[in-house]
Amino acid sequence: MEACEHPSDVLLKLPWLPVSISGRHLLAKSWFGDSAYHILLTDMHCVWEERMDSAAIQRRAQELNKRMQAPVKAFFSHLREVIQPTLTGSERQPDGEALISLTQQEDGGICMRLKSKLAGLPFYWEFHCNPAPVTVVCVQLVRPLLAMSHLLQRQVDQLGGLLVRKDAEIQDYKENGATLSRERLQTEVFEEQTNREDFMAKTLPLLQHHALSFDTDLQHLYTAIVTHGSTRKRKLSEKEQPPEEPGLTSSGSVQTDPGEDKDQNQNGNLEAAASETVERASVKQSVPSSSDPAERPSSKPKKKKVGLFR
């Protein structure tokens, strides 16, 4: 798992997998870290989930295995290896001594119990999966499935248009004298409405028996859609986030370099001295001269110089 990604984001990018536990057909997705896990299960009537961190796993291990005093990392890899084949629908069966069962709880949750051997001693574990919040169901299941449906419908429309063009191409060949060498290769002209009605009539009855099928192509499509959505969402959030202005502290004040402060202080002293000199000169000019106005040279307006220097 990438360090910048939350476990829920990693789980979102994993496809739903068809599994069978105690004869019950479900769709599952699961994430196991070094000492934490997140599981989702659904029978399309309800979605259940369980999230456990290291501290919660330690407490449950102590409750179910009274004699065990080992830290989480000592037994978590064993738990992961035993349960993952079941949660991924793998043909590889868990350890021959491991027993996994699933029971429905009165409160609406489901409990998946595991019994195996760890270092020659019995090891027990229980996954307590409760109904997931609506937000989780929408993010992990509803929205991706709606996007998949929309994308597949666009693909159907494109394929329908391609068939129409192919029929026009074949008709042009026929009008120019082309014939089929094998009559069994001849097809009827594609009519979209007729084809859709025929497809629905033949396929809908089959969905009653294969409603939980999620084959490899659909898994790849699901992963591609949620990955694209996550990437787009991240880019939009980065674009909306205003860039930090350099030199600003958390309090909003301007952060300067010590050397810059020294230069600014020197410049401030020079500016103060220059200002004082200008004030003295202005005071001196404001005092009336005691000399005779006649002796005062006549002031003629100076001609302005035009150019870079004035």
Write up this protein.
This protein has 310 residues and is an alpha+beta fold. 47% of the residues lie in helices and 17% in strands. The protein has seven helices and seven strands. The chain has helices spanning 7-12, 54-64, 72-87, 134-175, 192-207, 216-240, 258-286, and strands at residues 17-21, 24-32, 37-42, 47-52, 99-104, 110-118, 121-131. The chain has a seven-stranded antiparallel sheet with strand order 1-2-3-4-7-6-5. A hairpin with a 2-residue loop joins strand 1 and strand 2. Helix 4 packs across helix 6. The model is unreliable at 247-258, 277-297 and 304-310 (pLDDT under 50).
Kindly list the characteristics that best describe this protein.
single chain, seven-stranded antiparallel β-sheet, elongated, 17% strand, disordered C terminus, 310 residues, alpha+beta
Layout of secondary structure:
Layout lengths: L6 H6 L4 E5 L2 E9 L4 E6 L4 E6 L1 H11 L7 H16 L11 E6 L5 E9 L2 E11 L2 H42 L16 H16 L8 H25 L17 H29 L24
Antiparallel strand pairs: 1-2, 2-3, 3-4, 4-7, 5-6, 6-7
Concise account of the structure shown:
By secondary structure, the protein is α+β, with helices and mostly antiparallel strands. The protein contains 7 helices and 7 strands.
Q: Percentage of helical residues? A: 40-55%
Shape: elongated
How many beta-strand elements?
A: 7
User: End-to-end span in angstroms?
Assistant: 69 Å
Radius of gyration, in angstroms, nearest whole number: 39 Å
Main sheet overview: 7 strands, antiparallel
Q: Kindly estimate the percentage of residues that lie in beta strands according to DSSP.
A: 15-25%
Strand order of the largest sheet: 1-2-3-4-7-6-5
The DSSP helix count reads 7
Structural class: alpha+beta
**Any low-confidence stretches, pLDDT <50, length ≥5?**
247-258, 277-297, 304-310
Mean of the pLDDT scores? Answer: 79
Write the H/E string, N to C. Answer: HEEEEHHEEEHHHH
